[in-house]
Structure formats: C-alpha cells, structure tokens
Design goal:
heterodimer, A: alpha+beta, FAD/NAD(P)-binding domain, D-Amino Acid Oxidase, Chain A, domain 2, Arc Repressor Mutant, subunit A, 3 domains, 12 helices, 23 strands, B: FAD/NAD(P)-binding domain, five-stranded parallel beta sheet, 8 helices, 26% helix, elongated
C-alpha cells in the first residue's frame, strides 16, 4: 500500500508530488499518457500570471498570487526555465483604461504587488513597437514566463530523487473505498493508498465522479497558437494582453523562454478530450487579433509551428482544491488558467494538508535541488570554453537550430522521470523546437533513443503508444 | 591546435568543398572548412539516386559518388577540415566561434569567410496545415535519410504534398521499397520539379500528380490515419466543399527549401525575401569579407550549379584575401 497516489502527471500533479516528497511518505504518481506534462501543461500560454485577473475571494485568486510568488525561488531549486517578465494589459481606448484601472484595484485586493496603470509615454518606452492606437496599460512587473512542461518534469524528477515512483502510460479506470484506504484500478494494475489526489486535468471531473459526489463538469476548450522564430527577438519585450472581455483574456503576444514569440490563443469548445487539432478559422482569428498590438505588421513568415492546447474549464468557474466528502480523497481539479501560475501553491497546500491528515513526519533527507541540467545554448563564452575542455561530448551538436548537444540528450534519458520518446527529448532539452522543427535532428534523436534504451529504431515512439516514427526495415 | 586560417568556410557540403578547392588553386594556403556533421558532402550522402555531375563531370553519378570526387580532392590538396564542428556565431568583424570535439572551443579570425551552409526544408509548422500533429508527418529529406541512411521505412501508405524534386525522388524511392504512394498533391497549377523527375519518378510508377490541390487537414492522434485533400481556386484558396479524405499513415512534405542564413543575418548580413544571403556580383555579402554560395544564397535545382557557384565564391574570396584587404 502506498501512502499517497496522485492521478495525473501534469504540472499540478507533479508539483503536489514534489511537495509531498518532503515528508516520509511512499508516493506514486499515475499518468495515462506515456510521458509527464502531456495534457493542458503541454500547450498553453506559458505565462506566470501576476494575479490581477481572478475575482477576489476565489481559489483562483488565492493560489495564483501565492504561486506566482513561489516561482523565482522554485525555478532555482528545480532548475527549470523561468524568467520574470512583466505583463502589460494594453488599453486601446479611455474605456479600456478604466478596465485597466479596475484590474489594478482587483489585483491589489488579491494581494498583487507593484501594479501600475501607465500612460502611453511609459508604454512606448517599454514597447517601442506598440500600436499608435494604444493609450496605456496595466503594468504587472511580478509576472513571468516559464517552460510549463519543464517545470512539471523537474518537479517530478526531484520528487523521484526523493523516493517517489511514477506509473506512466496507465489509465485509471475505477476507484473504490476499501477499509483503511482507497483502491485505484488502472488498465494495467491495481494499487491501494491511504490517500488519493485527483489532479487529472481535463479528466478531473470524471475521476472525481469515480469516488466522490459530482461537483462540476469539465468543458474542454482548445486554444490555438502560432510560434514565431527567435529572429523576432526584440519585437515584443513584455507579455502583451488585450483588456479582458466576457470571452476571456483574448489573444496575447509573448516572448517565450526559448526566445520565440508566442501568439494566441483563441478559445473553442472541443468535444474530444484527447485531441488538439488546429483549424484555419481559429488560426486566422489569432492572427487578426494579434495584429492590432503593434504598429508594424507581425512577421508571420517567421512562423515555425502552429499548435493547440486543451484547457479544462470547470462548470463551477473555480478551482476545486482540497478534501472531498470521501475520507482520503483529495481534489486538485478543474484547474484552468491561471493553473500554471498557481501550481506550486496548490501543490504546497495540498501536500501540507495531506501530511497533516496522515500524520506524516518531515523527511529529514529531502533534497530540494534537482541536479543541474547543462544547457549549452545558455552558457556564456567562458562557460562553454570550460565545459568543452572538460567534456568534449558537449561539442557534438544534434539539434542545430537550438544548439542542443548529444550529451544533454543522453543525460535527459537517464535521469529520473527521463525521456523515453522523441517528444520527451524535445520537452526536456529543446531538441527539435527550433526553426527546422526537427527536420535535421529527428533521425539522430531516434538513433540516440534506440541506443540508450536498447530498443530497435522502429520501436522508438514519437509520443504515446502507436506513434512509431519508423514502420519497418527497408528491403 | 588550429592556427588561425586565412579563409574559413562554414559548411563542408558541395558548395563549401568547391569553394575551398578553388581558393586553394588561387594560392590561399591556410584554409579551414568547418562542418557540423561527422562527414563531408552534406545532403549528398543520402541522395543515392543518380543525376548528379552531368554538367561538372559529364557523367551520371549518385550523390555519394559526386561528393566523393570532391572529398578526394580536398584530401589530396591537403585542405584542412574539422568535422563535428558546429559554428555557434559569426561576428561582423568575421570572427568565427565554433566548438569541436577534437579542438575544443575555437575563436577564429580569418581574413575572409564563405557561407556555405545550404538550406533546410519547410515543415508542417511553417505552412500551418490545420489538424493534428501526429507521428508520420515528415519532410521528404528527413524521410530520405530514414530510408537511405538509417535503413527504415517511415510509412506504408503515403501522401506527398508538394512536387519539389526531393518529394518526387522520394515518391519513387518509397515505391521501390514497397510503400504505396497514393498521390502527389501540388498547390500550384504546375510542378516546380524537374521534368525528368516527373517522368521517371511519378509517371513511370503510375503515381498521380494532382495539380492545384493541397492538404487541408491532418487526421490521427498518435500516427497519421488520413489527410483531407482539396482543390484550390486561382487564388490558391481551398474549395472545401469539394474536399476528400485519403486514408494513409504518412504525409510527406516537399513544400520548399529555405536557405540557412541565420548565422550570418544574426551578424548583420542582409538577406533576401526568401532568406537567401544577399550577395553582390562578387558573391560578397553586405559584410565585407563574408562571401556566400550554393543553397545559402539561392536554392539551386542542380548540385552542379552549386559547385560552380562555390568555385566562384572561392575565387572571389581568394582575390579579396590576396588583394590585401
């Protein structure tokens, strides 16, 4: 029997696992996909929102502001890609300036610090390319940008370094209360645990309903994005939002931690929770709405990828975090935006609650630091010199666009919560997310995975089972 | 230790090797070719079909044979090259920063440099094909590498979008390997591929070439299960009412090549609309002393022409160096 089972390996489940690993508890995380961070965590706006957006008094407001404040220190401990980057909510009319003002008031009520409503002059200093129509903005300097899947994987790896276990590619099909614990049935095995956490993202309504009274329904929504090459660097300096409307936060422009420019999302209901197709109408909507931010046309010729992500929008409008009427069963459910920003705070709060309920002691041996990941493309000249002299393997570049070395790829395969797929490598070291979109490096990554995992090349998967890249040997 | 070369050539493919040989012939002794891959010859290594060298050697050679002719000459001329040596940065003063397994971190200050970095393929992301993003969508050149170098077939039922030469070559190659190539869809009303490839790669194998046709949706969660094709009107807008679905496991893309010039444009060199390095009559870029040739300047149909331009660039770079500038 485990002490705690977490269902769902997105950023919420992984953060919860990590904070639980600070206690003397046996932990297991179950994820239906082949890799962590495969649902909502994989494709979203990658923004650590400051916290001016949620209604005061909501769980969203509470966790957003706390989570946002945790990121700078957490990113250092777990060594994931994060950068403080102010958000600007751009107003295009005096009426929208009033909205910006209202957002400031709301943010302050939520506990967000350093919010300012700025005029056009200051806005121009921050964003020289801003549209002539822009009259001012809400300035939120505590916001940030992150690699969402990197944060989730780093948290899980750190938890595993501290003793947690992962069951990937296992789908939970049922649960029942059994004596002093909860039985969790997956399509591959049965587990028992004293406590179970529902962090199942887009499936969190269904997982809740397996054991607890119905609370909410999830309406999966798709958001589509363009990703522009790093040659756009300098075009936009901060995350640019439009003033929110009834339809949501709307299309944004933001630099990514990979120095690309992210443009999106739209929002549309998606009946199939496992599919994230793009469509031309949605992409056209994104392009049209993004164009108004700047006085120059967006360099859409520098587009390197279009993609869509799914978001679990709950019918009750707020996060559902904490105990359920069923003893030992906890929810971290219905987590849509600002879930990414909130995730460390949700994980921390749940972990402390569960540890208290289970009477768990602190794990004195807990190591909060993940072993540093060497990223060649982020080193200074001097650091590169020193590294190559010491470890010539880092001079062997596999991904030419992002300058990712073979040694980094081998390392990410052999870590805890390591890569087992081509997409897993992309998520962990960034190979293939550049301008050639893996045209050059994918065959090399396939070879490295086959070699390191000891499998034939035609068994190397892109992502989930059934995603073989090569179908059979040539004649 | 690498002594500071007079001429650095970035890229050891057909353009770079030809440039090096010509510069040597013109009296430049201290030349260094920097190549990212573990071999010289660039993409020629995977082009095992023939049709190379008709102009340069008046012979019909395969890609590896064509490359071998140049590699032999590079060796016999004693021209230095470093493999596994990616260039990280080129600066406006021609400083070249590279890293090499053997030589470590390199900071070179040549008198002239030649951009011979070739090109990359446009992929599904660049052209924003709607639908899902499963395994089984790949560029023709990547597929060519899987088949010819790695020895694996990437698909059994294949639709090809774009009738560029690599796509046409791969239609034949995959057919010979036992795959069913269902059709080649071309957005334009006529193919941009060489006539000989259309005849020898499609017509001879009864593979339909569907002109004014494009892929409007990719289907499949883990692996491609189908694509939706549609004819396009004279503005290249798909006529969705007349779209049809083709069950397949692979979508091969041959939708254009983009010169790889970011290394040089990051240093401030001007590039053309199509991303090719801007060069003058002497193949010199807007950075004095930085020359360009081959597919990094303009995507060529024939490797012979790449070699010829490489030779010219090598000559101009030699003149520049010997002119004392």
């Amino acid at each position: 029997m485990e002490d705690v089972i977490i269902i769902g390996g997105g950023v919420i489940g992984c953060m919860t696992l990590r904070y639980l690993s600070r206690y003397k508890l046996s932990l297991r995380l179950i994820e239906s996909h082949n890799d962590l961070a495969s649902g909502a965590t994989m494709a979203n706006s990658a923004i650590i929102h400051a916290g001016y957006d949620p209604e005061p008094g909501t769980a969203k407001a509470y966790f957003n502001v706390r989570g946002c404040g945790m990121y700078p220190a957490l990113a250092k401990e777990l060594d994931f890609l994060y950068r403080p980057l102010p958000s600007l909510v751009v107003a295009f009319s005096e009426e929208q300036m009033a909205t910006a003002e209202a957002l400031r008031t709301r943010g302050e009520e939520n506990g967000v610090e350093k919010l300012e409503v700025i005029g056009r002059e200051r806005l121009l200093e921050l964003e020289p390319n801003i549209s002539d129509e822009a009259v001012g903005a809400l300035y939120a300097p505590t916001a940030g940008i992150v690699e969402p899947w990197g944060a989730a994987i780093a948290a899980a790896e750190n938890a595993c370094d501290n003793g947690a276990k992962l069951s990937l590619g296992e789908k939970v099909i049922g649960m029942e209360k059994a004596g002093d614990g909860i039985l969790v049935h997956t399509d591959k095995a049965d587990y028992k645990a004293r406590a179970v956490v529902n962090a199942a993202g887009v499936w969190s309504d269904k997982i809740n309903d397996m054991l607890a009274p119905h609370i909410f329904d999830i309406t999966p929504r798709l958001g589509q994005y363009y990703l522009l090459d790093r040659r756009t660097s300098g075009l936009v300096n901060n995350t640019l939002f439009a003033c929110p409307t009834k339809e949501g936060k709307g299309v944004l422009l933001s630099p990514s931690v990979h120095e690309k420019l992210m443009i999106g999302p739209d929002a549309k209901a998606m009946p199939d929770r496992d599919l994230t197709p793009t469509d031309s109408a949605g992409l056209a909507f994104v392009k049209e709405n993004a164009a108004r931010f700047l006085k120059c046309p967006l360099p859409m010729n520098l587009n390197i990828r279009t993609y869509a992500g799914i978001r679990p929008t709950p019918s009750n409008g707020d996060f559902t975090v904490g105990r359920t009427p069923v003893e030992g069963f906890y929810n971290a459910a219905g987590i849509e935006s600002p879930g990414l920003a909130s995730s460390p705070a949700i994980g921390l709060e749940l972990a402390e609650m569960i540890a208290r309920d289970l009477g768990a002691e602190k794990n004195e041996d807990f190591n909060p630091f993940r072993r540093k990941q060497i990223r060649l493309n982020r080193l200074s000249e001097e650091e590169k010199k020193e590294l190559i002299a010491r470890e010539p393997g880092y001079a062997s570049i596999v991904c030419k666009c992002e300058k990712v070395s073979e040694k980094e790829i081998v390392d990410c395969i052999h870590r805890n919560a390591g890569a087992t797929t081509v997409k897993g490598v992309k998520k962990r070291v960034g190979a293939g997310l550049g301008r050639c979109q893996a045209g050059f490096c994918q065959p090399v990554v396939v070879n490295i995975l086959a070699r390191e995992l000891g499998i034939p090349k035609d068994q190397v998967l892109y992502d989930d089972p059934g995603s073989e890249i090569l179908l059979e040997k040539t004649k | 230790m690498i002594s500071n070369p007079d001429l650095v050539i970035v890229g050891g493919g057909s353009a770079g090797m030809a440039a090096a040989l010509e510069a040597k012939k013109r009296g430049i002794e201290n030349i260094l070719i920097l190549e990212t891959d573990p071999y010289l010859g660039g993409v020629l290594r995977q082009c095992i079909h023939t049709g190379f060298g008709l102009r340069t050697f008046s012979e019909d050679l395969s890609g590896p044979e064509y490359a071998a002719r140049y590699i032999e000459r590079i060796e016999s001329e004693g021209i230095r090259y470093l493999l596994n040596t990616p260039v990280l940065e080129v600066r406006p003063d021609l400083t070249v920063i590279a890293i090499s397994k053997e030589e470590g971190y390199l900071e070179l200050h040549p008198k002239a440099s030649i951009a011979a970095t070739g090109c990359r393929e446009r992929g599904a992301g660049t052209i924003a094909i709607p639908g899902t993003r499963p395994a089984g969508v790949l560029t023709a050149g990547t597929a060519q590498r899987y088949v010819n170098i790695e020895g694996y077939r990437p698909g059994k039922r294949v639709v090809i979008l774009g009738s560029g030469d690599i796509g046409l070559i791969m239609a034949r190659r995959l057919t010979l390997e036992g795959a069913k190539v269902l059709c080649v869809a071309e957005l334009m009303p006529k193919s941009g591929g060489l006539k000989r490839n259309i005849v020898q790669c499609l017509e001879d194998f009864d593979i339909p070439l569907l002109l004014s046709t494009t892929v409007v949706e990719i289907h499949g969660k883990d692996r491609v299960t189908a694509v939706t094709l549609a004819s396009v009107d004279e503005n290249r807008t798909p006529i969705l009412e007349k779209a049809w679905r083709v069950e397949c496991d692979t979508l091969l893309l041959s939708v254009g090549l983009v010169p790889e010039t970011e290394l040089f444009s990051d240093a401030g060199a001007a590039v053309e609309r199509g991303n090719g390095l801007t060069v003058d009559d002497h193949l010199m870029s807007t950075i004095p002393g930085l020359f360009g040739c081959g597919n990094a300047v303009k995507v060529h149909d024939l490797v012979d022409n790449v070699s010829l331009q490489g030779e010219k660039a090598g000559g101009f770079a030699a003149e520049y160096i010997l002119g004392g500038k």
